[in-house]
Amino acid sequence: MVKVLRTGVYICEAGTGAAGSVDLRMLAEYARELPSVVKVVECECPNPDPVSVGEQIRKDNFDRVVIAADSPGYFKPAFARAMSLAGKSPENVVLASFVGNGAGASGSTERAKAVICCAVSGVPFGLAASQRKKSVHPDTLVIGGGVGGIQAALEIAGAGKKVYMVEKLGTIGGKMAMFDKTFPTLDCSACILTPKMVSVGQNKNITLWTYAEVEGVSGSAGNYTVTVRKRARRVDEAACVSCNACSKTCPGEAPSEFDAGICMRKAIYIPFPQAVPNSFLIDEKACLWVTSGGQKCGTCVKKCAKEAIHLNARDEIVEITVGNIIVATGFQVFDAVKMERYGYGRLPNVITALEYERLTNASGPTGGNIVMKSLKYNKRKKVDEWVFGPDNPKPKNVAIIHCIGSRDHNHNRYCSRVCCMYSLKFAHLVREKLPDANCYEFYIDMRAYGKNYEEFLERVHEEGVHLVRGRTAKVEEADGQMRLKGEDIIGGKVLDFPVDLVILSVGLEPVPESEQLASLLGIARDEDGWYAEKDYNADPTGTERGGIYLAGVCQGPKDIPDTVAQASEVAARVIRSILSDQMQDSRNTLSLADIEDGLRRQE
Amino acid sequence: MGFEPRIVGFLCNWCSYTGADLAGTSRIKYQPNVSIIRVMCSARIDPTFVLKALSMGADGVVICGCHPVDCHYISGNYKAMRRFPLLKKLLKEFGVEDERVRLEWVSASEGQRFSEVINDMTDKIRALGPSKIRVQLDADKVER
Amino acid sequence: MTTECKIGVYVCSCGTNIGKMVDCDAVTGYTKNLPGVAVCKSYKYMCSNPGQEMIVKDIQRYGLDRVVVAACSPRMHEPTFRAAISHGGLNPYYLEMANIREQCSWVHDDHQQATDKAKALTCAAVKRVPFHEPFDMQSVPMNSASLVIGGGVAGLTAALELADANQPVYLVEKDGKLGGNLARIDLTSPYLDSAKDLLAERICRVTKNPKITVMLNSEVESISGYVGNFKAQIKSNGEAVTDIEIGSIIVCTGFREFDASKVGEYGYGRFPNVVTSFDLEKMLKEGRVVMKDGKTPKYVTIINCVGSRSGKYNRYCSRVCCMTALKYANGIKSAAPDAFITNLYTDMNAFGKGCEDFYRRSAERDTIFMMFDKHAPPTVSAAGKGEHFNMLVKVNEILSGEEVEIPADMVVLMVGMEAREDSMNVARLVNISRDKDGWFIESHPKLDPVATSTDGVFIAGACASPKDIPDTVAQARATTARILAKICQGEIWVEPVYAEINEDLCSGCRVCNELCPYSAIDYDPVKKRSAIISVMCKSCGGCVAGCPSGAIKARHFTDKQIFEQIEGVLEWASSRA
Amino acid sequence: MAVRANPNLLKQLKRYGADDVTKCFHCGTCSATCPLSQEPFLFPRKSMRYLQMGLGDRLKGNLEPWLCYYCGDCSDQCPREAQPGETMMSMRRWLTAKYDFTGLSMLFYESRTAEVAAIIVVGILSGIGFYLLGALSGGDFGSYPGFIPGHNAEYLTELGWDVKSVVLVMAVFVLGLLGINVLRMWWFTTGSRKDLNVPFDIYMKHILLCPWHFFTQKRYSECDKKKPWVVHIILMLGFVALFAVFLAHMIWQDDTHAHTYLGPLAGVMLVGASSFALSGRLNKTEAHYKYSHHSDMNFLYMCLFVGLTGLAQHIAGRIGCGAFANFMYILHMMGAVPMLLIQLPFTKWAHLVYRPHAMYFAAIQADVIAGREGAKGASAVPHKQSA
To answer: Do A191 and C488 make contact, defined as CB atoms within 8 angstroms?
Structure first.
């Protein structure tokens, strides 16, 4: 005969925030009716005192305590101590976490009830809440063609399964293709990524749609119907041989996306020489023919020997059916203009991280020379412009400022996770290419947490880079000389010294489309705008919806190995579902009754 | 130009060759006198390889393998280690100086050590001067 | 054997990675005139799509039958170019690479000498490649069962993932229970979820799953075989030995904590109220945050980076301790609301999702953070007589520039992670390498973080480097991607590079039998000859060099090929002299 | 020399308004943003650090809080909303309490009730006192300024009263208190520091800084934001003008020019500036108005009250409402006296004495330190961390 444990349920309002959407009174009523519950205590104190709680436990003779809150873990140590003070077993403190089990975001009181019900029965929520099994369509959609998407697609295709990859830009490769080197090994980024891009292009199991967007998603776990708009490239991918004849005479110009805007490209362009698919496309905003409504220009058509250019091509809409969807949409960088005091956009030689990546890249506009911008006359626009050129003067003092837009309550509160390391890499490249230049890193905390990162930090330090603790406050210009003002905290002084080039280590942000895509896919976003994972620890890549997974930075900032690991993880889950032809339905299809049922099965 | 030694290096694929690659990715500089030939394991080094190299006019030969206990093939480096003294004995008979042929352990994480080994080897051979065979070969060539 | 080969030589300048130090045009100019070379070109990125296509087109246009690529390390792009030439219709083994980046342009600083060396290496490759032989990939069946070593959260996750795909799994755990290090933990950072629930769910699923064979108190005794076809012996409870056959191995052996008593300055073991993070974890779980005399501590100091980021102990950062320290700060504050908590840190690694927020919230709960230089750690000493606390922590606080004494009733040491003491045995068992700190080495630190240099053996979680729970779970599942992919394919392709014995030359002396570490050489007592079982041969070549009759040939590393290579590097040099 | 951390200090400072200081993670933005923060006084970050760690002695000898005028730029830019500006403000309150040897300042700062009660008690007492003074001196409540004691000086003298001596006693009391406290301030910050060892001539060299800063608030004008300085200087000049009127009135019995023109002008300045500040604080319009300690609010209420009653008294007197003017006069005094007796020596208003002195001491310290550093040669390049 099992002894019934007298259970006390504490509903703690003062969690971390989201409890507002849960009806606590209804919850208390529900909990009171549960078997073995002798009392429900509504606790409003943000810091319950273990001694008085202990008194209460002793008085009410609880054998077990359930803490129900958004994040009950905050109170757990207090309750454990209270139990031990009351002479009860602290093992019998059970957590009923609303946020951790999906009741925080969706704000459903029903879910919160289920969470409490499971906690009172002593069964982990995940065990009771097992969704219905659904059969799975064997095809997969990967949204986003960065390194995460590429890795996931290749893994799945390697299992012989069909993959559709949709990329919004004209080539796959994502941000990683723009990088010069990768930390801490200093592998050349293109060298390790381009072969993977090539394999995506050549893999028979992968259908690659670049310059395309997901427009609609319907259906349910295991069987989604997805509408994809293939925007008109206006150049026939298959026919184009990238001979470059068309762009030579093209009059339209726009800042090159691939070169982070530090140089121009033509309206008909190939994003970069190793692009996959290796084909040109037309930027309709810059193309004279398109903007003039077909009245002017059209020279490229004449130049193309392969007759690959079709200026009046239209967008194409395709519909596909897939079993799983992998979201790997990555990030955009923080817009440094928002932090006015650093002068980005106002001072020519204040540049952002991606711009520096292109500046120092051998295939970039300066051939890898780290130089300053200088004024040059633009014949077309008839104005002087600040531009980079391979022979521009080299900077003597380079400052790298960390945490731009990150760890800042005025902008993004979170840490962007990669900036410290990429900044160290920048400093290394400065020291390598400009041995006479001084290089300063201004940081708050040096987050060198990964394998061999600390060693890299020490190495960069030994190379003579000045590491200065203190994020600095502003960059100003006087008499044509930039000056940087900041506090050297460890050195104990305020700095005000001349700099020639300032690199802003901008943080990562969700892409602007993520809100729309989240609503299309029916997945949640966290308060910072990243897609919300199903369970921080147990399921970092799953979502509330079955068969929709997150890989890489779109779930939160991440470096390349972590992105790749997540992408492989997602691929594993997709392959598993196809192999066993079953997957879990979306969690929001579970009702309270379902969970109660599940609970009975567990018992 | 002074005397530039020519050295042939035989490196096992798993530790030493990877270590040499690591020296590269870490941009650790060393002297360019050693040309590397990749073999799967230091146990693959047939004594004839060394003899061949010396007879072709190499001033030195360096063999690198995994550290004892760390061999990718469990015990290949032990085999190399046991064969090596025999080879040395033979070379001594031929009048080849002891420093000209070396066996070293370099692991996959020892880029720095690899560069040190190479620099040390090169310096020693440089001090030793060209090998007798090389001098002879060069002289033959001039005659021709 | 052809002497009239048509060789295509391609020199990559790798952006400026090679071109900056090596004069690629000089290399092509020289190579062009070598015997057998039909075409020689230089290009910015040979590995890119256009670069590869150039090779493919040239093979057809010039009728090339051998290809030499002088570029980066073959460890990097040999597979890429093999695929490319086979795309062009050549056998992939007709490729030879000259490593003029990692072993030339990146390590030398004299243009002329680097260019000369690049020429020598290219020349060697050109001389070697005519003697290459064509091979076809070997196909072997894929055993769908897997072995998971380690029953922590990584092992449990990987096992479940495979079992849910209906594939059999053997889960071997050294201890008497599942859970590993996570079982010692109560709450997880930064959201303070219950680790117990996380683990309970997984263990319940694992034990109920008929596809998973859990072997507790067990250790892997030996492993033989190769990808898709491993054989393992598992020793349970010290005696019973089970033989199993598996296709893949996942190593998730986790970590052990740093031994805090090594750091004398912290007085662990000397002062009763200096505890490690794991001690405190237990105290919090049991609801008794008390000093040894039973009193509630008033002043608690948490010291980070114990044994990590240190010149003396481990250089690396253990990645999780900062957030764990914040968790303890919260826990102590919650259990003993009157306590003052000080956290001494070097850099606050709050990099994960939710972590920065957690850091801020801990600060709002009045945890005082003090920063010290990682090379000047704090010291713990006994408090003077008559003080109302029992220890003094002295730290050189660098944000204020002051030397500060902090009263402490209890000191918590955030011990770092270390490779397990048996990691070397495990590495030997499954034939993978370890780095200088004892962590297992991944196949590629960026793009292949869970595979290893041995095909079919994967690593996940904290055995590869310190990791938190989400990253461990992600890696654990990631390992199963390739295993499941291979199971889907049903068979695997193994490299045809192995040794073979020429029966005519073999004298049956059986020297090689003893030499082979993989028992891949069989002696046929009838024929009185030895023969190599090709799939078991790992192509080390130990037998080749050891055969007294020269009867064994190492495919792709024949004596002839290596002789040619030696000649290549030296011939060029002597021709210059 | 090692200093002892005192975790209790933080708790104490919270009563002075330093609620957010623990949020600071020391990025150094504030100190570099602040145009006033210059070697050797780098604030506010370092003071915040002392506070976080509970280094009470360091804090007590710290002039930096006084060098800050609270324009709020640092609080705006703080990435963690640690409110450095408000923290500096709270440290000024705490320092005021520390300088005060009587302990009353600490009492008033730590307890709102105590300050309000003291103001009310002193106010009521002075109300009674001034009424009696007027009544006893034979003043006529219906006629203005007939009820004002100064105007009936002869009666007072007959009674044996002397307004001047009352004022004198009060002034001696207040100035004596402040004098002792300023001396204490000097001792904590400068005098007790053996490492400084200030020669006498340097004290003399900078002595004019005190009145200079007092009257111009020059330093406040160096903040990037100018508006707060304008408001502050109007308020301050209002007081100075009032003081002048008071002196003219009380000492030289002159109520013609000063009283007629300067008085109302000062009143308008006072009312204008204090109501601007008050509405700013109530609506939390600017960074430096976001957080208000009870001492701030009480001070502004008192300013407004004193200003308004003064103006009302004046206008009523002008238009011939004698009784009302006299009533206003009593009210005016009920505000003015507590301000002078409570707020001037013990709470918010004390900064009028401490701040100029802080500038003075700071200049002295900077001079001494610069003399020493000059020999060593300072550089603006970041220091090299130990590897």
So the answer is: no
